[in-house]
Every structure is written in C-alpha cells, then in structure tokens.
Specification:
By secondary structure, the chain is of the alpha/beta class. The chain has six helices and nine strands. It binds 5-O-phosphono-beta-D-ribofuranosylamine (GRF).
C-alpha cells in the first residue's frame, strides 16, 4: 500500500481527481494518509474532510520566520511516514531539508509542457497567460519529481492539449486541468504505487 500525503494551496481539483481515482479503482494500492495546506481557506481542505481524510493547515503566518515554518512543514509531513508526497496545486517553495529527507519521493503537477512556461513566476494562471501571449498552439501538463530546482526534476508523464484561438487564460486552464492534469497525476501515482517508474540520472521512465 502506497502511503501518500497530498499538499495543496487552493481549490483542490487535482486532489479531487486523486480521491475519485482511488475510489473508482484507477489508482490501486494507494491511500491518502493526510492533506496538508499552507492556506487555511483552501477549499481543498474541505474536499479532504468531505472524503474523510485528515486535513490540516500549516500556515507560514503561524511561525516567526521561514526557517520555523519549514521545520514545522517537514515535521508535519514526516509524521505520516509517506512513501510519496504529491504537490497538487501547492504554491509554497519546498524546503531543501524536505527534498533531502524524501529523495525522489515528491512529485508535482505543473500546467505546461516542461521545459516550456515553467520556473520562477510560472504558476497558476500565469502559465496560461504566458502560453497565450506567445501564441503557442499546443500546451499541456507535466508530472515530475521535485528536486532542488523549480520545475526541474525528472519528468514522469506529460499530456498535450490544444490551444484554441478564442481561449482566455481561464478557459485554457480549465481545459488543461480537465484534459491533462486530472488524468496524468492519478496515472503517475498508480505507476509509482506499482514500482513502474524508474529514474536514471535526471530522467524518469515508465516500465
Ligand atoms: C492547477 O492549474 C494546477 O496545475 C496548479 O494549480 C492549479 C490549481 O490546482 N498547480 P487545484 O485546483 O488546486 O488542484
């Protein structure tokens, strides 16, 4: 049984996709031990509670400085002894100590085809604003392992999505979530649960 902790900051639609995928058997041999958010108002916490999953907020506002918050976040995650940590719309920089404590055990969903439109400043709607500004015809989503960089870890899965001429950042975000994020994140978790993802250097492959 793969024990996971899912980390969220917002609406939690990716969390909901994971919850639903476990319920309907798309993801097997996996449990969500806890959902942790940095944002006490994240609707994702409601989604967790509605699904009977332990949900807690570890907010930077409750700590005197970033180092104290980072320590609390790491302890808050490690107490569940996760096999995998899933960043599902989590907008806080993962502390280096956490990366060291959980090497190749943290994955993230990013709403573009990395290495395009990722890195500093590319999160949430800003990603899709960049895609539309550049006039790209294809975008998508990426699931990757988290390393010390920003969106730089080994890529596990990607899925392409067409950009429509009349897209706004919101319509594009919704289609990327529906057609890509909500599919490849559960798929990646199930693959990891069944030891079907191997890492060689900075590359991951599915066996
Ligand atoms: C999504 O676009 C996701 O790709 C990004 O955060 C947005 C909101 O995700 N990481 P969610 O609805 O909170 O899962």
């Amino acid at each position: 049984m793969l024990k996971t902790v899912v980390m969220v900051s917002g609406g939690g639609t990716n969390l909901q996709a994971i919850i639903d995928a476990i319920k309907n058997g798309v993801i097997k041999d996996t449990e969500i031990s806890a959902v942790i958010s940095n944002n006490e108002n994240a609707y994702a916490l409601e989604r967790a509670k509605n699904a009977g999953i332990s949900a807690e907020c570890i907010s930077p506002k409750s700590y005197s400085d970033r180092a104290a918050f980072n320590k609390a976040l790491l302890e808050g995650v490690l107490k569940y002894e996760p096999d995998l940590v899933v960043l599902a719309g989590f907008l806080v920089v993962i502390p280096p100590e956490m990366i060291k404590a959980l090497p190749n055990k943290i994955i993230n969903i990013h709403p573009s085809l990395i290495p395009a439109f990722c890195g500093e400043g590319y999160y949430g709607l800003h990603v899709h604003e960049g895609v539309l500004e550049r006039g790209t015809k294809i975008t998508g989503a990426t699931v990757h392992f988290v390393d010390e960089g920003t969106d730089t870890g080994p890529i596990i899965l990607q899925k392409a999505v067409e950009v429509h001429d009349n897209d706004t950042p919101k319509t594009l975000q919704q289609r990327v979530m529906e057609e890509a994020e909500w599919k490849i994140l559960p798929m990646a978790i199930d693959l990891i649960a069944h030891d079907r993802v191997v890492i060689e250097g900075n590359k991951a492959s599915v066996i």
